[in-house]
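[step 3/7] fold_predict: job queued, chain A
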Amino acid sequence: FDALDTLIFGNRPFITYLLQEVVTPELLSNALKGLYPNGPQRVDDILVQSFYQPSQDPGSPECLNQIYTNDAGRTPQELHQKYPAALQNMPIHVVWGTQDTVTPLAGPVGQFYRGLA
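[step 4/7] structure written:
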């Protein structure tokens, strides 16, 4: 994905065009409804606008470039490995939907936290 991320998100004219001409409230609404398969009615105008308005800011192409092309940082697994003494006794209450489509419980992060339970 690194090359694809750089090709798309490193191309400011392209990403600017997408944000100005392709991204619409309707497109975002449909995308957000896909994240709420059991409650698409929860996607209201306020939620849609909370994503749409920032996309129209002049700095949004740079922001997307930074999000998708910079180092993502440490994973939860790496943080627990790096700071075992601090995190071993720290209580964590995680509420995780079994149908989470963004970070599935069956994925590596979900399984990691499930293993800590």
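[step 5/7] annotate
The chain has a mean pLDDT of 89.
The two ends are 32 Å apart (CA to CA).
exit 0
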